[in-house]
Each structure stands twice: as structure tokens, then as C-alpha cells.
Amino acid sequence: MTAHYQVHADVAVITLDNPPVNGLGLATRRGIAAGLEQAQADAAVKAIVITGAGKAFSGGADITEFGTDKALAEPNLHSVISAVENCSKPVVAAIHTVCMGGGLELALGCHYRIAAPGCSVALPEVKLGLLPGAGGTQRLPRVVGVEAALNMIVSGEPVKSELIASVPGQKLFDKLAASPESLADEALAFARSVADVRPLPLVRNLPCKHPQGDAYFQFARNMVKGMAKNFPAPLKCLDAVEAAATHKKFDDGLKVERELFIQLMWSPESRALRHLFFAERAASKIPDVPAGTPLREIKKVAVIGAGTMGGGIAMNFLNAGLPVTILEMKQEAINRGVEVMSRNYEAQVKKGKLKQEKYEQRMALLSTTLDYAALADADLVIEAVFEDLGVKEQVFKQLDAVMKPGAILASNTSTLDVNKIAAFTARPQDVVGLHFFSPANVMKLLEVVRGDKTAKDVMATVMAVAKKIKKVAVVSGVCDGFIGNRMIEQYGRQGGFLLDEGCTPQQVDKAIEKFGFAMGPFRMGDLAGNDIGWAIRKRRYVEKPDMKYSKTADLLCEKGRFGQKVGKGWYDYAPGKRTPIPNAEVEQMLEEHRKSLGLTPRKISDEEIVQRLVFSLVNEAAHILEEGIANKASDIDVVYIFGYGFPVHRGGPLNYANEVGLFNVAAAMKRFAQNPLDDAAFWQPAPLLQRLVAEGKQF
Ligand code: NAI
């Protein structure tokens, strides 16, 4: 049992005890039901208190039961709440620290609620594309009012107990305890004070309506529609709350809530969000690195290079309160780098996102140097110098000479071989790739590149460091481009072929943005700088002469159209503006190029554009998975969601492929392979994909 029963004189206390947050799993639900029965059967017991052990009243559903039979097994949460409501003796919820989701729904079923100050109260189901399905949408509006309840349910954001308690007329809390420490005693005393009060009050019996009625819901619907974007859940939350306010009988509203909940449960959007919820947590686990691996202590950090990446990387550590020393070749480079960082922080201060004193505290943790000797006591050094193996060699040899034993030596390289970089040192076990994404202080993704010799405790340590600086870390093996960029290269190649065959950049961008990408490939190229891809292709032409590319991007670069930084790329840009303006010169360039190849442009559907771009990611991902570059399919989805603007409601490229059906995905690839202007060899479904199709399995 993960709920304990104890009798304190005339009050029974049921304590949820299912760490970490007293999730309402089957064993806990059984424990509550059994406790209620026992208390009812005991004539000496006059009242019952339900509370939580440790760090929560309850965080809600037990996520480990998601998708299993246990989640719905009796007693399910509905039955437990009914048992509480129907209990012949008063049941008091004693709430502290965390009271969320099913935990709050359980509390709302109790006859009384007493809360400790500082408790986070929320119905966060919307964040998983769901709605509170155990009466939350029906009971919360009855105790905090329709508007406040709707805000909480649609946003899923927590509200502090003392704030709720301060609202006149609220009925969520019957009492606010003086402190978390006094909650247990105050709950017992409160339970005794109401032991004989009859009839027992029930939230379901309270009235529920908004003074403006329909007009309010019309207004709210417009607001929610605007923010819901690709997700159905926020509007369904609103429907459910509206049902609470318009149905005369509580149980009719509850029925509506149930129907809406089931609709959402089966929606691809909720499946995508639930997939990502688990995928993000699973990403930090490395199969052969046990959870308890001892970590190296990281107290001081060094960064080599104060350019675009170095400054952003340093900011992550300063934000987390770790001192950082930046090393550069010249004082001017240091000054430039530090100025960019200061401006960045100042902008945050201006926008009210950062307090002036916090900014000062962070900058005070920063030191700079031109001398490697100053890095000797750093525990972790991250190199972010020019992307050139010769330069990296110089840097790593010097680091090897000065860094203390056991220090972790990391490279932010985006394309170079981490094993070669490790071999520049006499301590390859301490070398790892930490591939940040630009802007490094903003982007959540961190690819952790594991070299052949990288020690397990180094892996465990950098994963913990990633968490500390609030990154989502995914482990990648060593290969050109690692997980993310290796896949994006195929996506970019398809973009080029689509132009050759008749698309305009704006048509391609529009189609994939409608699918949900934050930005299409050509707008993305203009933002990142088209010269970067050009440099990579030039290398490819030598390394892989058989690889087929469209020449359009090279022609664009030959015209100096490098992107936003020069005001022109695939599109034109007004000075200081980021709005893409289609350009006639580019369209003419594309037409001439097609003519020179003897190609007649054809009309390409948005569906074909999206499939070719997305399935190119999927096929490369299947190769990556099979080669063991990625540990699991969900890691690849995490990379694409947090690093490449893949639409969240689709759950990442491999989740999307599963949704489409792998048979259909492979069939489309075989069709694309028939197109003489495309790359037939690339479109052979990867062996792993073929196997999964044959076995009727998913990624
Ligand atoms: P950058 O050119 O903006 O900055 C490089 C900095 O390193 C310059 O300030 C330069 O003075 C300094 N530097 C060069 N050689 C040095 C040496 N021997 N010792 C000390 N400092 C030295 O380059 P950026 O864009 O910051 O790239 C740095 C690294 O990060 C590269 O490996 C790049 O591939 C990688 N990267 C870049 C991304 C981007 O979007 N820019 C994204 C992810 C990784």
C-alpha cells in the first residue's frame, strides 16, 4: 500500500505515500478506499483527514501507469472521489507543497480543505493535451468562480495557495494553516471542529454560473482560440467549464467532461505531447551508464572563444550561478564578446525579464584571460573556437597541458570528429562533445557527443550539468553532423530538388510552416546564413562526389545572397527587419537554372512537399538509429522538437511517422525513388524501417 492509515484519538488520517509526489497510482487509490472503509467501520472515528507524506499532497495521476491497464483499474479516481463524497463522516483534505491534477480533484471531492501556505495548486492536464477528467472542470469553477477556474484549467499554470485563499468569496480552502509545519495539527483540530456538522458540504452542490453567461463564454472562446493554435485541448477545457456553468445537474456536466476527456485522450495531439513528456525524461538516461554513477564535481567552468557560441555558452553557466573564465586570442575579441553578453542581459533587464542586481551578480561571476594558465583549476572547459581541426588541435593540446587531472574537456564542434579531437590529448576519456545550438543561451537542446573513449562518469556528469543549466540533453554517437544536422542535410537536399522541379522558396516554406514548422528551410537558411551550408557542400563535393545536390543554393551564394545578415538571401529583407520579401532575381535564377538542365517545371502539391521534407528526416533517422548513433527513437524526436522547430503537436519526426503508419511512409519513399530528378538511392527505405514495416511494429 502506498497510503497509510492511522488513528489519532477520534480522527483517522490517511497519508498518501508514493514518492516522489504521491501520484495516485492503483496501490495508492486502493489505500485511500481501504482507509475510508476502515474509518467508517470504526465507531470511535468521528472525522477523516487525507494528507500527503514528503514533498506533496499529491501531484496527480501516477505517470508510470500511463497507457497501462492500471490507470483505469478499480478503484479508479472517479470511484475514489465518489467514495470520499459518499463517506458518512467528514473528510478533510490537508494540502501542502504540491496539489495538482488528480490530487486537486481528489481534494475537491473532500468535504473540507485546509491548505498550508506556499502550496502550488494546479490542473495541468492541458499541458499533456488533456483536460482534468475526474471532475476538475466541474468542481473548480464552483469554488473559485468560472473565470479563475477557466484561467487555471486552460493555462495549466500553478497558483499559490495563499493567493487563492486571499480572494474574497473563494470556497476552495476552508482554512489556510499558519505554516506548513502546523498543517497536521491544525487539520486534526479542524476535523474535530466539524465532526458533528451535518449535512456534509459537497462542492458538487454549490451553484456555478458566470454573471455574463453566454457573452462571457463567447469572449473567452475567441481568446482561447487565438492561443490554442494546433491543439484542441484548450477549447475542450472551455467546453467542459461551460458545461459546468450551463447544465442544471452536476452529473450532466460531469458526463460532458468525460466525453471530452475521451476525445482528447485519443487525439494525435495529446498522444504527441504525452510521447514528448516521456521522451524528454528518457533522454537523460544512457543505457550503459547506471543512474547512481558518481559524478565529477563541477564548480568552475572555462570557455575558449568569445564568439557567437562562446558568449552564449558562458551565459548558461553564469545564469546557473557558476563562475566562468573565457579565454580568447586577443583582448579586442574578449571586449567584443563581453559586450555582446552585457547587451544581451541589458535587453532582458529592459524587458523586465531580469532584475538589475541579478544581471550584476551574473557578470561578477565572469572573468576573462588570454593565458591558458588561468584555466588550470577549471572543472569543465568548453571549446568554441573556429570550426577547423587544426585550430582545435592547438587548443586541445594546450588544454591538455594545463588542465588539472579529472577536468572535463568539451568541444562545441558542429561537424568535426570528436574522437580525433580527443586524440589530441593524452586523456581521451575526459573529452566529450557538447553541441549547443544558436543562440546558445536560449535554445534548449544540447547534443552530448560521446566519443569512443569518453568515460561513463564524464557522460553522467555532463548530463547532470545539462540539467543544471536547464538544457534538454540528448546523447549522440560520433558521426558527421551528429543526430540533428545529419538529418537536416537530407531535408535541405530535398528543398533543393523541389526548387529544381518547379517550386518557389515561398511555396516550400509555406507548405512546411502550415504543417507546423516554425520556419521553412529557405527562411531558416537566410536566418542561419546560406554560406554555412555552402561551406559544408563544398566539403561534401570532395568527400562524397556521388552525392546528388541541387545547384540552386550554390548559385544563390555565388550572388552573395548569404541571408538576413546581408539583407538578401532566398528572400529580401528591409534593413533591421526579418520579414521575408520574395525576390524576382531569385525566381529568375531558378527558372534559368531549370532551363539549363532542360527541366520543365511541374506543379507540386503541398502534400508532396511536406512528405518529401519530413520523410527525408525519417529515413535518415532510421539509419542513425540502426547505426547506434542515437540510443532510442524518442531521443531523435527530442532533438527535433527542442533544436529544429519541429511542430510539437506532431511529437517529432518518428512519432509522426508512427502516426502516419510506417507502411505508408515506406510506400511514399518508394514512390519518391521513382522520380528521376530526386535521389533514388537515398529513398530506399532504411533497413530498420523495412524491418519494422515487415513486423508491423513502430519506431
Ligand atoms: P565565431 O567565429 O563566432 O567565434 C569563434 C571565436 O573563437 C572567435 O571569437 C575567435 O577569436 C576565437 N578563437 C579562434 N581561435 C582561437 C584560439 N586558438 N584560441 C582562443 N580563441 C580562439 O564562431 P562560432 O559561430 O561561435 O562557432 C564556434 C564553434 O561552435 C565552432 O566549432 C562551430 O562549428 C560551433 N557551432 C556553431 C554554431 C553556430 O550556429 N554558429 C552552432 C553550434 C556549434
UniProtKB/TrEMBL annotation:
<dbReference type="Pfam" id="PF00378">
    <property type="entry name" value="ECH_1"/>
</dbReference>
<keyword id="KW-0560">Oxidoreductase</keyword>
<keyword id="KW-0413">Isomerase</keyword>
<dbReference type="InterPro" id="IPR008927">
    <property type="entry name" value="6-PGluconate_DH-like_C_sf"/>
</dbReference>
<dbReference type="Pfam" id="PF00725">
    <property type="entry name" value="3HCDH"/>
</dbReference>
<dbReference type="InterPro" id="IPR006108">
    <property type="entry name" value="3HC_DH_C"/>
</dbReference>
<dbReference type="InterPro" id="IPR029045">
    <property type="entry name" value="ClpP/crotonase-like_dom_sf"/>
</dbReference>
<dbReference type="InterPro" id="IPR006176">
    <property type="entry name" value="3-OHacyl-CoA_DH_NAD-bd"/>
</dbReference>
<dbReference type="Pfam" id="PF02737">
    <property type="entry name" value="3HCDH_N"/>
</dbReference>
<keyword id="KW-0442">Lipid degradation</keyword>
<feature type="domain" description="3-hydroxyacyl-CoA dehydrogenase C-terminal">
    <location>
        <begin position="609"/>
        <end position="697"/>
    </location>
</feature>
<feature type="domain" description="3-hydroxyacyl-CoA dehydrogenase NAD binding">
    <location>
        <begin position="300"/>
        <end position="476"/>
    </location>
</feature>
<keyword id="KW-0276">Fatty acid metabolism</keyword>
<keyword id="KW-0456">Lyase</keyword>
<dbReference type="InterPro" id="IPR001753">
    <property type="entry name" value="Enoyl-CoA_hydra/iso"/>
</dbReference>
<keyword id="KW-0576">Peroxisome</keyword>
<feature type="domain" description="3-hydroxyacyl-CoA dehydrogenase C-terminal">
    <location>
        <begin position="481"/>
        <end position="573"/>
    </location>
</feature>
<dbReference type="InterPro" id="IPR036291">
    <property type="entry name" value="NAD(P)-bd_dom_sf"/>
</dbReference>
<keyword id="KW-0511">Multifunctional enzyme</keyword>
<protein>
    <submittedName>
        <fullName>3-hydroxyacyl-CoA dehydrogenase NAD-binding domain-containing protein</fullName>
    </submittedName>
</protein>
<keyword id="KW-0443">Lipid metabolism</keyword>
<keyword id="KW-0520">NAD</keyword>
<comment type="pathway">
    <text>Lipid metabolism; fatty acid beta-oxidation.</text>
</comment>
